[in-house]
Amino acid sequence: MGRKWNNIKEKKASKDANTSRIYAKFGLEIYVAARKGEPDPEANRALKVVLERAKTYNVPKAIIDRALDKAKGSSDEIYEELRYEGFGPNGAMIIVDALTNNVNRTAPDVRSAFNKNGGNMGVSGSVAYMFDATAVIGLEGKSMDEVMEVLLEADVDIRDIVEEDEMVMVYADPDQFHAVQEAFKQVGISEFAVAELTMLAQNNVTLSEEGQVLFDKLIDALEDLEDVQQVYHNVE
Question: Does 126 have pLDDT greater than 50?
Fold first, then answer.
């Protein structure tokens, strides 16, 4: 699963050049999650997941508090969660998750990004079946044996565990996200280098140099869209 972690690592590394954009996306995601239920992470599982993820990206407390205060207030903004699927150069598969208060704006924007950068949108289900929703937890400063011992003691179900880049990566079903974290918190481990709910491709593809350049432009164009929260793909 090494390449899967690399895809996540590359996304995290890119945040240094796009900090304000990533913080804005987290602010919106926190607001929407808080509006779905209580603006209290202990009573709202979806909100707790977003806040755990935001922590690994060092989202400032001021942005988190602003989003929570907005959710507690009288704001009547309604956002819809949308998923688009499509293809990039050489049949690369792409999933685009969006949060929008204007569906009539989002769909044309996503389609335009695909069309202008060598890709095309597919119908619902044309790509997603080749990806698995996955919880990914990464720990630094721990050995494989230490991590496995904690998970076995807590009797937590996981898919895989690997050691890469001086980090131990735990892959599990999405509904085990909190269980995995709680297992570590019970033994005093509360800091995670990675805490993601993501879509991992079942099979990855390698593009030609020319195809990779075009693909990178497509991904950048999609991630730059105001309504797009996450972009997943199967390119090495």
Answer: yes
